[in-house]
Amino acid sequence: xxxxxxxxxxxxxxxxxxxxxxRLLPLVFILSFHAIAAGQETAxxxxxxxxxxxxxxxxxxxxxxxxxxxxxxxxPIAMTIDTRGRLWVVECTSYPDWQDxxxxxxxxxxxxxxxxxxxxRHDRRTVFLDNGRNLxxxxxxxxxxxxxSSPDLIFIPDADGDDIPDGPAETLLSGFxxxxxxxxxxxxxxxxxxxxxxxxxILDVSQVTNPSKPDQxxxxxxxxxxxxxxxxxxxxxxxxxxxxxxxxDWNSVGQAFFTNCVIEHVFHAIPGARFKRMFGNDLNPNxxxxxxxxxxxxxxxxxxxNVSIGGKHDDAGGGHAHxxxxxxxxxxxxxxxxxxxxxxxxxxxRMNCDRLIASPDGYVASHDADFMQSVDPxxxxxxxxxxxxxxxxxxxxxxTGECHDFVDxxxxxxxxxxxxxxxxxxxxxDLNALPDDQLLELQNHENAWxxxxxxxxxxxxxATQPDNKQLASKIVQAYRDVPLENSRLxxxxxxxTAACGLADRSILQEAAxxxxxxxxxxxxxxxxxxxxxxxxxxxxNQSAGLLLQEQVAAAIRRDDASIENITPELVANIxxxxxxxxxxxxxxxxxxxxxxxxxxxxxxxxxxSLSQQYAAFEPPILAHCISQKLAAIDAHDLVxxxxxxxxxxxxSRESLISGLLxxxxxxxxxxxQAWSEARDSLLDGSIQSNRLGYELALIFGDAxxxxxxxxxxxxxxEDAQNAFDLLVQYSDADTAAVVQQGLKLRSLRTxxxxxxxxxxxxxxxxxxxxxxxxxxxxxxxxxxxxxVTRNSYAKRLLSAIENKQVPETVLTTFAVGQxxxxxxxxxxxxxRKIYGTVTATDATRNRQIDQMxxxxxxxxxxxADLHAGKQVFVQKCATCHKLLNEGGTIGPDLxxxxxxxxxxxxxxxxxxxxxxxxxxxxxxxxTIDGRVLAGVIESQDGQRVVLQTPKEKITxxxxxxxxxxxxxxxxxxxxxxxxxxxxxxxxxSAYFQSDFTPVQ
Length: 1000
Hints:
The protein is of the alpha+beta class. The termini are far apart.
């Protein structure tokens, strides 16, 4: 075995302390700490553990005990329960300064707690390990302990079960990133299939290596779920997406759900799924579409992470930070609590509850009443787990910080609570000591802990006794003896055979004749066995609902089985639009590898047939994705051929062209051969209704289509406006003339004024600036938008402002910021002469905030005009932000922010760059032809950049870009309130804080 990577240069050290504890020590410690903290106004006080549990809010009939607390446990981050019912806990004192594997000495510990008298409090504590490093997850089994110890997954052997390591740790996996901060890999749990599952956050991409398979290249892993087989030593990503997943569990029919911190809180962990992310792109550039959460609700009302606490968020569920997942299947809590998903809401200091509602089409997680709430301000729950007595352990990290708070860390506190209904029965024993027959009987136990633990013991015995044919025969016969009608036990026995490597074709074929859950698992397990996947498993009901079909779609990524059973008619019958979309997305992830350049070259007819087959599904998600993938391998001809075929539904035709455009927009390429046949059908009718076709024509350099667009400039207004936009977007030598023509036409004048930024027309710009006072307001705005993008225009504009020909108040704060980014000394000198220093100092901002706080009193807000406030919001904010379901989506939705707070309103409006989320940081792009554009880069690849400005989305070819500069500042400009009267600021603030929705 390899040296223990998380122990450091000193020898592995084990400390065994079996002690009978007094109840006074933790309380005395806490009271002392409480007294010290009370003397410092800035330091929050830790609540004594006994007081915290006494004031914990629970449903009637439930009670809680302090199972353990500091100093016996600090910073508990993960736990598991062994075959004797003992609680194993990881203390992570490494956080937030993860320790360097080659330098730092490990200090994290693994503790074992026992409650020998059944009073809900531990009375025996053993230190299994005291020099672990970066520990964040734990599981037991197979004669030892598995630990997440970044950058490694390690296994510490303890085959004799004496709680003393038998030797150094074995490195099972390596390469998990140490740059993850609070997003480290975590959450070890055994799945029903016998694999060890874990999770990984979004802040970095790990390159996971497998020491047992040195010839295999590293496997990239980002946010999502992964798994590792304990005997075959195989690692694989399981599903991708979310932000910082921290908690996974399986319901009674083996469907996995994982919880997530930030964005939606729960996802149905279907193998091969690609879920939405907080930011960044999926590792597969050909994913194109990401699945949503299965939840029909969120536990917060919007806003940034550090303000989504309290107030309105309490009604929703407490906040958006979640940790831990437990689907209760114990036998102590009443039946009404069973098979529901529980997760800790960190901001809300409570335990949220979701009902997992199954339909033939899939799962929906629906909001249920919160189960528990803590009044302890230090409560930071991280995990829940039920044990052999059916009660639930809750780990409390117990600290003041959460999420991104790395500064004020209290390493001296930590609690473990135990929640029970009534008086639980005490259990003692050791499943590892039971004979095989009794372990088989436990597969039918009401408390799933016994079923799961007995399965793991049997899996270990089969793996370590390969010549014991009798045990294998017993397990197979036990499966055979259960009738299909007993679906619950049959499914459990199917998992046992799979975990033990005994699920052959005959077993899976029998399961495939059972209910939908047996069919789903039979299909999935068959797809994971290469010897079985080649010959398909025939399910009893080929349209038995999409719980099965999701497994089919996920299975296709592993083998060549067809998905003919998933027909357009079947998908069309799914009433829930969200579930229908989810299935189609899974289908795309499954079939995407089939659309590849090699097959296209060798058998283009096969690719065309697949394209036509899947383009028929509606909604046309598959059509859109197929066209993007085909465009990526330069199969433009094939997309056009499929789109032009009579069998292609109109919605799919539009999606095929839309997908092709998404891949090609910003580029200029020669027209493919099929364009001559497809163009007539794509350009048949008005320009407005065929805008996508005309845009494609311009990309292909279709001169005839360009002439048609030029001719349309003097036609119907809507066609003229669409034609003008396209001609300017895809410019050529005649674009300046097009802009000048637009300036002469009333229906195009505003568009043409804004389009001045695309061309260099200094004399025309000078004439327009001279006539500025006579322009309507919308045309003045459009002209200003163009004038701030080029040095030559900016000089004329600033000269006009300096000479009082144009009022200086016409420039918005964003426009002034845009001018400040032009790299021309004369422009900057003019700008400073007129406006002074563009960026306010912190002292200036603070003075502004203090002044306005005094103005925005409760009486002033109460007397505000909400109608007028809404008008100011529409003028100043609604372009980018949504409030009360009205406004744009460029910036965050403001409805759920801490908007009832005057301080929050002022700090974010006056000083928007104090906290800028990654998704809203601005960049400046200089084009080769002299324009300077500012906005948020929405996406980019090797050929183009998509820039979102406050006014529009612009796609630029990389070849047309001189330089891209990341500014690190917010798209939201400073000085937003500078040109408002006091009353307008009061009205805006009042509307911002209100729930005002005027009758239309």
